[in-house]
Amino acid sequence: MNADKQLTAMVVHESMFNNTAVIADAVARGLALEGLVVSGTDVAEVPDLDSVAVDLLVVGAPTHAFSLSRPSTREDAVRQGAPDDRTRTGVREWLQSASPLGADRTCMAAMFDTRVRKVRHLPMSAGTRGRHVLQRLGFTVLARPEGFVVDDVRGPLIEGEVERAVTWGRDLARLCQQRRAADEAAAGGHVTAEQ
Prior knowledge:
- By secondary structure, the chain is of the alpha/beta class.
- It has one domain: Flavodoxin domain (Rossmann fold, 3-Layer(aba) Sandwich).
- It has five helices and six strands, in the order βαββααβαββα.
- Strands 1, 2, 3, 4, 5 and 6 form a six-stranded parallel β-sheet that branches.
- Helix 1 crosses helix 5.
- The chain is globular.
- 39% of the residues are buried.
């Protein structure tokens, strides 16, 4: 890997009851522990995906009705006690508003979700749906979506999930570094695409 270029990552999350936000922070810590320069933000405050320029994009969302949230499911969460401002925008809308990556732009990505303990082994989830959207947009998805478990809709996270999120972040960082090194080796050490 080019020694003068430090890899960058952004962790974007949507969180109704703060559980996904806690996991996002833990993932960001794991990425940073492996040397990536990391920023993180709530999806309601992040710029359009088209203007995000990082080596690795990590996206996290709560699972609503076996998928990413919709305005109606976010309104349901508010009725269950989530803050009113959580209905504004979600990961689904943020991803769907993006243009596909062009040939001059490369970016790696990963997706995680939070889910309730009683349905922890879901056939479909926010992570699964998000991964499909990221792939369609042209991102190189590094790993299968990871699911983190909350005890009930409002939480809390079950014991050990925060630590597991830090470990997952470290694993993602290493995958990102390995992929970048392989890409540079294949290109003769010169990666010219916009990061």
